[in-house]
Design goal:
four-stranded antiparallel beta sheet, mainly beta, globular, seven-stranded mixed beta sheet, 11 strands, 0% helix, 111 residues
Length: 111
């Protein structure tokens, strides 16, 4: 059974940083692209960014230059490094691969 699990969320002040992790179990992680999404209260889920199997990345305009996605195929993990966080980054963050989703991790940016 394929399972994705996010971790690393929490409360951070504006301008701070967080690093989210996504662990993938039950599949060969390295051959597929991985995506990060987020959903703020009362809003639709939106794409944050993706990383291909080869390590190429693409980001939403709202996070470009502040967020970085990486992957460690040996550990079956992907990461989302978030810097210069803003209150509008507050959301539940999800990782996804091949149609499977993790349960999400809450990120709250507030002073």
């Amino acid at each position: 059974q394929v399972q994705l699990v996010e971790s690393g969320g929490g409360l951070v002040q504006p301008g701070g940083s967080l690093r989210l992790s996504c662990a993938v179990f039950g599949r060969i992680f390295s051959i597929n692209a991985m995506g990060w999404y987020r959903q703020a209260p009362g809003k639709e889920r939106e794409l944050v960014g993706v990383i291909t199997s080869g390590g190429s990345t693409n980001y939403a305009d709202s996070v470009k230059g502040r967020f970085t996605i990486s992957r460690d195929n040996a550990k079956n993990r992907a990461y989302l490094q978030m810097n210069s966080l803003k209150p509008e980054d507050t959301a539940v963050y999800y990782c996804t691969q091949s149609g499977q989703w993790g349960p999400g991790t809450q990120v709250t940016v507030s002073s």
